[in-house]
């Protein structure tokens, strides 16, 4: 819900649910033995196409799947095939969509800032009706993982029922479980802890306090910087809790009792999160008419001759100027003009910067073989005008056009 109407791709968390469902249904006797391998492989492809952040998340779940298969069922071939097939499928899909075509870095700043707080599962961050927000640090909105009062209530009910039905020492009762059941429980708990630690890393925090700050080696720091918003990994923990609570409730004696508890949990959950639902609804209910910022008639004249819009010099923080890119993106689309760059994540900045600088220099020297509209993001970058180009101030934008 938090990701809707702002980061829709990350709202496609059904990819993560498929991975967890594959784990939960691990003991099922499939008609075709290759079914689990196919499910994992297809899910790997879907994760790449929906959002690349889901790839490491489903691998965390797969780690639990593999460990359960090996330690609980003494199977080795199936988990190996699932891992290899999913990896090959995901990498091939990434290759097809051009993930390896650039020469730039996929790293991004913010590692340790966009993390999860260790109170995330119970921190509503002001989005709940009944649970007051807890303290958290700037940037940790990325680690929003509030369970909801309904699931918290369901967990309490499940815990009470488990304790009430435990007739002997819990450790002795656990030792009496089958090897498969022990492996499932230990692996589920381990993946829950692992996902929360990754979500909080490399700087662990609780409320407003920093508990630890790990100085990672450059190689590990670089890899983790690709997925700088580590707080999102708390979603794995959230769905493990959801699955565990709902599974425990479903095992209540008597279908009516189980159904009543399910309805109660759902009702409390909706009531608790209705503030968030209402705010999201109000935020997106009003239709906002787009107002084109490029109103000067001169733009039409320039569009008749332009082949490409060049943003130069391109600053390192060019993504912060997304409004400029959106304005000229609409203009370029309507007039069939190319763009030298755009506001996209993980762009090859070095290539985009060098390409823009080269074209700007061609405009200054009068050697451009195409007609460019050079958009200056910062006014101090505007070169001294000469006979090779003309600078215009249109609707607050400073642009240069080569005199062909």
Shape: elongated
How many E strands? 7
Poorly predicted sequence stretches spanning 5 or more consecutive residues:
none
- How much strand content do the residues show? 5-15%
Count of helix runs? 13
Helix percentage range? 40-55%
Overall pLDDT, averaged?
89
Main sheet characteristics: 5 strands, mixed
Helix and strand sequence: HHHHHHHEEHHHHEHEHEEE
Instruction: State the strand order across the main sheet.
Output: 4-3-5-7-6
Query: What's the number of structural domains?
Result: 3
Class by SSE composition:
alpha/beta
Description of the structure:
There is one protein chain. This protein is an alpha/beta fold. It has 3 domains: 10-103, no CATH class; 105-288, no CATH class; 298-402. Helices cover 51% and strands 8% of the residues. It contains 13 helices and 7 strands. It has helices at 14-24, 35-50, 54-73, 77-96, 149-164, 170-175, 179-200, 218-226, 234-250, 255-285, 298-305, 322-335, 349-365, and strands at residues 203-206, 209-213, 308-311, 338-339, 372-376, 389-394, 397-402. The strands form 2 sheets. Strands 4-3-5-7-6 form a 5-stranded mixed β-sheet, with helices on both faces. The longest helix is centred in the last third of the chain and has 31 residues, at 255-285. The chain is elongated and about 90 Å long. It starts with 13 loop residues before the first helix and ends with a strand. 31% of the residues are buried. The mean pLDDT is 89.
């Amino acid at each position: 819900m938090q990701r809707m109407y702002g980061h829709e791709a990350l709202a496609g968390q059904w990819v993560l649910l498929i991975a967890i469902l594959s784990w939960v249904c691990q003991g099922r006797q499939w008609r075709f033995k290759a079914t689990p391998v196919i499910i994992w492989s297809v899910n790997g492809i879907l994760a790449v196409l929906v959002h690349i952040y889901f790839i490491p998340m489903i691998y965390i779940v797969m780690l639990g799947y593999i460990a359960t298969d090996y330690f609980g069922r003494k199977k080795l071939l199936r988990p190996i095939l699932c891992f290899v097939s999913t990896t090959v499928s995901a990498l091939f899909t990434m290759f097809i969509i051009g993930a390896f075509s650039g020469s730039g870095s996929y790293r991004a700043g913010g590692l340790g800032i966009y993390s999860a707080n260790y109170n995330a599962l119970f921190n509503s961050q002001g989005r709940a009706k009944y649970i007051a927000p807890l303290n958290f640090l700037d940037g940790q909105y990325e680690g929003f993982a509030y369970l909801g009062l309904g699931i918290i209530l369901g967990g309490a009910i499940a815990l009470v029922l488990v304790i009430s039905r435990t007739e002997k020492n819990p450790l002795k009762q656990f030792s009496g479980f089958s090897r498969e059941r022990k492996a499932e429980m230990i692996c589920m708990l381990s993946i829950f802890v692992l996902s929360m630690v990754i979500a909080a890393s490399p700087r662990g925090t609780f409320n407003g306090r920093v508990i630890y700050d790990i100085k990672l080696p450059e190689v590990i720091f670089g890899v983790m910087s690709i997925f700088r918003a580590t707080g999102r990994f708390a979603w794995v923990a959230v769905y493990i809790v959801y699955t565990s609570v709902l599974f425990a409730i479903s095992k209540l004696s008597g279908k009516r009792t189980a159904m009543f508890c399910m309805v109660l949990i759902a009702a409390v959950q909706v009531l608790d999160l209705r503030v968030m639902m209402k705010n999201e609804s109000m935020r997106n209910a009003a239709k906002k008419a787009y107002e084109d910022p490029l109103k000067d008639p001169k733009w039409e004249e320039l569009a008749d001759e332009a082949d490409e819009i060049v943003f130069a010099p391109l600053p390192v923080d060019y993504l912060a100027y997304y409004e400029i890119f959106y304005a000229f993106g609409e203009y370029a689309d309507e007039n069939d003009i190319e763009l030298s760059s755009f506001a996209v994540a993980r762009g090859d900045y070095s290539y985009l910067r060098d390409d823009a600088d080269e074209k700007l220099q061609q405009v200054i020297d009068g050697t451009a073989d195409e007609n460019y509209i050079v958009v200056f993001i910062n006014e101090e970058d505007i070169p001294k005008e000469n006979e090779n180009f003309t600078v215009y101030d249109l609707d607050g934008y400073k642009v240069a056009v080569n005199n062909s």
